[in-house]
Amino acid sequence: MLGMPGSVITTTRPVLLEQAAREHLRVHSPIDGALVGLIRISDETEIIDAVRTARATLPAWSGTSATDRGRRIRAAASAVRGVIDELAALQHAETGRPVTYARAGVLAGVEILERYAELGPVHRGRSVLGKQAAVDLTVPEPLGVVAVLTSWNDPVAVSCGLLGAALATGNTVVFKPSERTAHLGLRLAEVVASALPTGVLGVLSGDGRTGARLTAEPGIDLIAHVGSAETGRDIAEVAARAGTAVLLENGGNDALIVDEGVDIGWAAEQTARAAFAETGQRRASVERVYVHRAVAAVFQHRLAAEADRLAAGSGRFAETWPSDDELGPLVDRHSRERVHDQVSEAVAQGAWALAGGRIPRGPGAYYPATVLADCTPQMRVMREETCGPVAALRVVEDFDQALTEAAQDRHGRAATVLTASMSRAQRAWRELPVGTVRVNSVAGAGPGSDVRPRRGFGTGLSFAFGPELLDEMTAMKVVHLGLAVPGERPIKRVVTAMYGGEEEHDA
What we know:
Blueprint: E1 8-9, E2 24-28, E3 35-40, H1 44-62, H2 66-81, H3 84-95, H4 99-122, E4 127-128, E5 134-142, E6 145-149, H5 155-168, E7 172-176, H6 182-193, E8 201-203, H7 208-215, E9 222-227, H8 229-242, E10 245-250, E11 254-258, H9 264-276, E12 286-292, H10 293-309, E13 311-312, E14 326-327, H11 333-348, E15 352-355, E16 370-373, H12 380-383, E17 390-396, H13 399-406, E18 414-418, H14 422-431, E19 436-439, E20 458-459, H15 468-472, E21 474-482, E22 493-498, E23 501-506
Parallel strand pairs: 1-8, 6-7, 6-9, 7-8, 9-10, 11-12, 11-18, 12-17, 13-14, 16-17, 18-19
Antiparallel strand pairs: 2-3, 4-5, 5-21, 10-20, 15-16, 22-23
């Protein structure tokens, strides 16, 4: 076993190669294809037991004061901080993410846990105006057992956000991390659970079949999932039949508009950062780029030069992007094939690869930074999530066309506008039907300021890990307290003269 303490339901363990069978996950490094490890997949009995244990521990945990829950979560944050380097190394091994980025992601997870340790105790209901002889109020209560399923591309921060919000509000959790970050997910669960009472946090390991079985378990009250749109659709269907609450953030196809009048070199650098950083696998990565015809020729040339500068390399990375000269791998070769299929299909339909567009030789799952010109709205690379280092360019005649086409997004997650015009910036954030609009900056936002997608691939108010997520993790109960007691003398209001005026008091 991975040394899982009693506070975690132990359902997985690495095994020796000769013991491996079909019931084990094989995790390979996308850097060189080497085997990272083997982890046993949780079976049906373990899934049922995990949910039952979470249900059994729910009354005690929900009955714990919010202040004491906050102390526990703060201790969990401290424990995670103590293993930052270990978690970053695991993420690098399993996903190829540069260690510097991985450390930043772990630190973000620590800060999110600390945030919920503070926000949980001050989460509150409201009083409601009613009759004079009554008190009406709303009180937040835990939803119950929460199934948390997370993605591989920002695994620690996202997991800490969902776990922190669920635990702070008195829910118990069964956690199934992505199979692509199985070792990382198990270790993170072990560390967080070490600060919690036994059974409050359970962890399962497996692929999509394990997640599907978990979400179909009758004892689940809320499913919180960050991952692919396809998986999100399946979860939504299962939850609709069972009446289970859901929080989903699924996929993205974010747009970026390059307006006339901007500094072309700056715009190219911003676009490259948005599309290619972390190999285009961030939740906030830009995939569609709409360029004003007045600047299109020069911009395309400059962006292609930025892409050519980023070589798919051996995994050595500088401290900050975009000063590094190498691009990391995609998470696995299956993802690379999917990215390349979209690129090849676009080229066959008339797009031009100004940079990249070819699978490099050698081990690993590397793919070059790719710039596609002459893209049309009908191409899959413009309509579907790519999740790779690909910038699909479309030349537009004016800002109106850019806004119109950028808004044609079934995800509605985010969009970015680079413009020298304040009035156009105002139009963009008002008119684009997305959860987040960035103006003249492709990265950076205050804590809790990034909200969920607007369309069919997100439900719930916020996955930005701010105070709103606490509302989504709870059910509001309305309480009406009538003040009159049967047989008690009714209250009468008496008015008496006082200092030339009148005063009301009880008789």
